[in-house]
Design brief:
homodimer, alpha/beta, Nucleotidyltransferase, domain 5, five-stranded mixed β-sheet, 12 helices
Chain lengths: ~300, ~300
């Protein structure tokens, strides 16, 4: 698909919301005028927090673009958010009294895919706080995973953290061999027993768990339990990639905070197909808004 | 340990809080005067809800005992709650402006164990919404599991439900073989795709997941995936039981909503040691309050 939006005066906003952060970009002609970054914007974990983060991100982007806040009312926004494949959440987001002239909402996967392949067909896997895969090839769409913390999201940052904690607690109960992973968690939380680990994790959000991921990945070179966790996560990402590649997408990219650190753990046939993402998810959200206007 | 509390005039309250319900009993002499039942009371999932449920349960018990609500101010309460092995939660519960003359708080495991063995030494495994094990033998205490939904609680109702949903979603993504379990979840939630399952479970509490458990147990006789889940859960409970039995407790019981349905899945050496619980966790809470007064 070639973008043919030609009105270089029109201001566009692209927003990428996620479990840990929200990014916004202001774009006109073929230039990024400003960018803004704020906190988590995952409607599954709080719709008001999502709106607050989106508002902060676009206001920061306006300041960065040296535009008055009132200019937002002239913008056309594309928004990519986790969870809006669920109808009830999509409706709640669309009912938002947004500050834009128009707003188009789709999944964060969709905008990430459009961004990575600069508006063209392709497939992406996102591994950050959560994990999921998406492909758009011709008239085919494929969505895999992205079911959220606790229901799937294997290989994601939150999953790596949660598995590490669960396996360490099993060992500390004497029901599995104790390895370095327990000490790693003690050090991280500055505690000395299982209760200390539980106290630091009980009831916490997926992004809180995801902070443990890079320590689990580091430990995986030496520690058998951490190695098993990362291998299982990578195996899921391999399965997901092969499923997406069965649609023969012209391009395939992996994005998100865990894409690079997980890469060495993936299978050769998957790594061979990887191409760098051309543009960001928030620019994908801009392309999405432009596509919707042209349709 | 023999109970020697002899003041037959003193009113005692025993409260057992849990992930799905809260039970209260009013006791004096050696008679139960009244009982009350209310909603979930797990401080890990909401401290205010816990206080509300406890208040409702004791008020209902007072009505059932034909006592005026004011009589509660004369009672001495024993309270068993999940999560109060975590210091911050125990402090929050103890800071509650409770309606009793005195209140003693301990874990739900501790009161369940005291109740099951009528004040004597022993070991218990509780498998309901969550799972955990506890033993008190001489001067030794052993606590296993009970880390909460997402961090452990294998073999529990919530874990069975969560595993079933996760495995079904994996199959519906084409990443595992699809079995009857998918249809079972479709029927249960009255939906027809993965999104419908996610929409019904995302962000829900452990007790919501636990409602799926009995369907998973039923399916486990015929369905390979359900069978693997239940076998893994039972294997964890076996490990936990053997760990507790290594302390040579004079009695060993399993209690909670899943104790009976899980029993056929346990190993023979574990089943052989099982004895029926003599009394309820809420009566255990009464014994606990009496023991604390005598100490």
């Amino acid at each position: 698909m070639t973008l043919t939006y030609t009105n270089s005066e029109q201001l566009f906003i692209g927003i990428d919301g996620g479990g840990s952060k929200c990014k916004a970009v202001i774009y006109a002609g073929n230039k990024i005028l400003g960018e803004g970054l704020s906190g988590r914007a995952n409607p599954l974990h709080g719709i008001q927090q999502t709106f607050t983060s989106m508002t902060q991100a676009v206001q920061l982007a306006a300041v960065n673009a040296e535009l008055p806040t009132e200019a937002l009312s002239q913008t056309i926004a594309g928004v990519g958010l986790a969870g809006v494949n669920l109808n009830k959440l999509k409706q709640q987001v669309e009912a938002w009294q947004h500050p834009f002239a128009q707003m188009f909402v789709t999944t964060d996967l969709h905008t990430a895919c459009i961004g990575a392949h600069q508006g063209g067909d392709g497939a992406v896997i996102i591994t950050g706080t959560g994990s999921c895969g998406y492909a758009h090839v011709g008239d085919k769409n494929l969505l895999i995973g992205g079911h959220g913390f606790g229901l799937g999201d294997k290989g994601s940052g939150a999953w790596l953290g949660q598995q590490a904690a669960a396996k360490a607690l099993l060992a500390l109960d004497g029901l599995a061999a104790e390895t370095e992973l327990c000490q790693l968690l003690f050090d991280y939380f500055e505690v000395s027993d299982a209760m200390g680990i539980v106290e630091n994790l009980a009831g916490e959000t997926s992004s809180h768990y995801a902070k443990l991921a890079r320590y689990v990945l580091q430990a995986a070179n030496d520690d058998e339990v951490a190695n098993n966790i990362v291998t299982e996560g990578a195996s899921y990402i391999n399965d997901m990639a092969r499923q997406l590649l069965s649609l023969n997408p012209p391009r395939f990219s992996m994005i998100g905070g865990l894409a690079e650190p997980l890469k060495p753990w993936l299978a050769d046939d998957v790594i061979k197909q990887l191409k760098p993402a051309i543009n960001s998810p928030e620019m994908g959200a801009v392309y999405y808004a432009q596509q919707q206007l042209l349709n």
